[in-house]
Predict the 3D structure of the following.
Amino acid sequence: MKAKNVLKLIVAIGICELAGILGSIFTVSSIPDWYNNLAKPALNPPGWVFGPVWTILYLLMGIAVFLVWKKRLEQKEARKALFVFGIQLFLNAIWSIIFFGLRSPIWAFVDIVFLWIAIVWTIALFYRIYRPAALLLLPYILWVSFAAYLNYSIWFLQT
């Protein structure tokens, strides 16, 4: 791989992982005194699962966005796909701020619905540009679908 592409790959993965780090800042401080005291659904995984899963998902997102960036950045369709990817990454990052920082499961659920739509849109756009990039996002949409269930359930169980 050319040095220029290695740098692009590092930047793409780094930006995605930074979104996760931003979210974790709000998450970690709210777990002991708020999140641990919430009623949770039966399918709620143990807390240690979330960190490794999200780290892997951000890695896959970074590789996917790199593949699209490398493939056809000069094309309008690729620029649109990267823009939509940026929207979903933003929605991803603010979910933790809303859920854990603001301690608002209902508004976090609203965010995750828009996030889910943006991920599906990103997958569709990536698929038209480079199918392997779209396929790398399938674990992400599956996990966010599960996270939406958890988010809704937590909100519902608190009411």
Notes: The chain has a mean pLDDT of 95. The domain at 3-158 is CATH 1.20.1260.100 (Ferritin).
